[in-house]
Amino acid sequence: MNEVKNPDRKRVCDVSADRRIIEIRKKGCVTRIIANPDGTLNITHERTNPAA
22: how many CB neighbours lie within 10 A of its CB? Predict the structure, then answer.
């Protein structure tokens, strides 16, 4: 995964080497956007630290 930063040098997301997967991490959640070969997108959300 390669980091993508905004003009303020803040990390915005990570992009896979083949540029098909983008991961956005914010406040204990990960949003994953995956490009399918047919041009559609799969978007998933998951918590990285589940409530105990």
Answer: 19
- Return d(Cα 26, Cα 1) in angstroms, integer: 17
Which amino acid does the sequence have at 9? Answer: R
One-letter amino acid identity for 2? Answer: N
Q: Which of 25, 17, 20, 18 is nearest to 1 (CA)?
A: 17
pLDDT of amino acid 51: 64
Task: Identify the bridge partners of residue 35 per DSSP, sorted by sequence position.
Answer: 41
Query: Maximum Cα–Cα distance for the chain, whole Å?
Result: 39
How does pLDDT run across 26-48, given as a tens digit for each residue? 998 999 999 999 999 999 999 98
